[in-house]
Amino acid sequence: MSTFAQLKEQTKAWSGELDDTRLGLSINAIYKQIVNRFFWPQLVIQKSITLEVGKQFYDLDPLFRWIKTVWYRNSADGTPIPISGVKRVLDNFDLGTPDVYRIDKDPDDFDWRIGFESIPNGNHINVYPNMSYEFYYSPPNLSAGSDVPRFDADDHHLIALGAAVLLTARQSDTPGYAMINDLWKDGLGDMEEKSINFMGSPIVVPGAEITESNAAPQPADYGRRVGGGPV
Questions:
Q1: How are the residues of the chain apportioned to helix, strand and coil, as percentages rounded to the nearest 5?
Q2: Residue 206 has pLDDT above 70, yes or no
Q3: Which long-range contacts (CB under 8 A, 24 or more apart) does 155-159 make?
Q4: What are the two backbone dihedrals, phi and then psi, of residue 206, each rounded to the nearest 5 degrees?
Q5: Considering only Cβ atoms within 10 Å of each terminal Cβ, which end of the chain, N or C, has fewer?
Q6: Hey, where are the domains in the chain?
Q7: pLDDT of the residue at 200
């Protein structure tokens, strides 16, 4: 495991950069680039929403990046009851049991929100007061020296390597850049392959060809196909 302070020392060793500000900025730039590159299984968390009668839209967690699953629970046996996502505009008149949701941006504050159709009514909330959702989140920047990246410990060194790529490019260190860039790309590929194996094969990563299916695998998990065989 590597802390932010340790990542700075590793990046310094690879790049020769001594400026602490540039070290920190480069590390966080690469950290965010890795986060945004893939739907990482390490970056999935679950939250719950307390429903209110007649309220259609609810704010999502501030770290929200991409929805994975939305459900409420059967009060009799605890079975999760999933609801489907839609892209169309929701009906804002009918009250009842929510059976679809839509993710969009709040037009007032531009935060991510979730809306339900039908709008929860009292009968539904009396039995199912909460709606749960699982989502991919975007971790905050590393700031304190003791902060730790939200990836597996074995992959932390890739952040330092990527930061060193940025810094050696800035220094016009062509041989150093080429060597470290090759190491970084190979390591990043191994990290993606590990996640692919964790989530199953074939796997597809964010891209244009979204697999539209209500059964596993979910569209939130998969995008561009990189494995063979049917999904």
A1: 35, 25, 40
A2: no
A3: 155/187, 155/191, 156/1, 156/2, 156/7, 157/2, 157/10, 157/187, 158/34, 158/184, 158/187, 158/188, 158/191, 159/2, 159/7, 159/27, 159/30, 159/31, 159/34
A4: -50, 130
A5: N
A6: 4-41+140-225, 43-137
A7: 62
